[in-house]
Design a protein that fits this description.
Chain lengths: ~210, ~210
DNA sequence: GCGTGTGAACTGGTTCACAGCG
DNA sequence: CGCTGTGAACCAGTTCACACGC
């Protein structure tokens, strides 16, 4: 699947959007690429390049109007309506995410949780509707769920992904330490692996020590 | 800070390392770039390019010896000795990570946990030593902690990072929804933001719908 | 024939530099 | 004078293609 914008640009634009919300809360109504760059630790020209993928949106000489900027970003990135999401795997990480207040305010509605352990489902108290894992395909289809977070152990991850895709899921964020392969071009998968991130970090440190400036 | 290897290469090599462990457990002792590529969903030539950053390590015609490969990777990436890490913020996400068995087997030792809430510290039962947040700088220095995971709320994240850096931390993985700026060239920071990842994912979907192939 | 290693070609994202405007 | 928008220059990483060895 080919994106019209580079992924790195999309990622930065999402951060800029976040920042707009914050600045707005602080009562600001204008912002320049320099200021954005400073809080996001990026070069100002990178921000400018990113932003005018959306068209000419700034005012020469005086930066960007935060309201307008936010609106354009929301429109381009699809933040205008809430997205329906689910979590598969209600272990510690899954419930941590499930209970995370921030999702409400951020345009995501977690409409279902799944777990293979029936006992766990019964004892859980959460406002989110929970289902046994074998209902994944059916519920995803019926509830028109777009996105899924996978927080199950490695062994189960690929099967879970298969069930989600059978139900017509569009996007998956996978936290299990395995690379999930999309079924078709129509499914987008992002793999996030915390242990791998730690390894990357220590590798960077190690390589730098070995070959210092 | 400039790395001798591209970050993307490092990231892939870490995954290859992981895969070696798995293949070894399955009793395999040789592997080809094609096989690696298949399970990691990457092109074989990418894997080969990555691997011979480490020197000529494969055997022409018959792939790589897993034992030797793993050893070279471990050496290059610094996985030979365990790394001392800590977690700041023992809320749901923090404790989920703390209790995650996988860290032991993966060469990381979590030697300290911190939280600003003294009551929480008292009621926690964990085999990891816990400290109040105001001791961060001191403990990091005394215990020679290299890596930190930040799982505190946004407001606290930059202060926590400052305290860690004052104690001489080398690497930080930050889960708070804010970009942590390193103090100096000597500190490496990786920012991971789950909500942002979800936004990136739905943006990709949205952009694809808007401009389909 | 399969699989590695590698120089060469390519690609696209990043950086630069400056014109244009309030 | 500060800040945006943008074409051009740059560069790093990716991809290709093929020689060589088992």
């Amino acid at each position: 699947m080919k994106t019209p914008l580079p992924i790195s640009t999309i990622s930065r634009l999402c951060m800029v959007f976040r920042l707009c919300e914050e600045f707005q809360q602080q009562g600001k109504d204008r912002v320049s690429s320099t200021q954005i760059g400073r809080t996001l630790d990026m070069a100002a020209h990178t921000i400018r390049k990113d932003l005018n993928h959306l068209g000419e949106i700034g005012d020469t000489g005086s930066g960007y109007d935060i309201g307008r900027l936010k609106q354009h970003l929301a429109q381009a990135l699809g933040f205008e309506q809430a997205h329906r999401a689910c979590i598969v795997g209600l272990g510690r990480l899954g419930t941590a995410i499930l209970e995370h207040e921030a999702f409400d305010v951020n345009g995501y509605e977690i409409v279902a949780g799944f777990d293979a352990n029936i006992n766990r489902l019964e004892t859980m108290q959460t406002r989110t509707q929970v289902y046994p894992a074998y209902e994944i395909t059916e519920v995803v289809a019926r509830e028109a769920i777009e996105l899924a977070l996978i927080t199950v152990p490695r062994e189960a991850a690929q099967d879970v992904a298969q069930a989600l895709m059978a139900g017509g899921i569009q996007g998956i964020i996978n936290f299990a330490p395995i690379v999930i392969k999309p079924d078709s071009e129509a499914v987008v998968v992002r793999n996030i692996n915390i242990v791998n991130e730690m390894r990357i970090l220590s590798s960077i440190l190690n390589l730098n020590d070995a070959a210092p400036e």
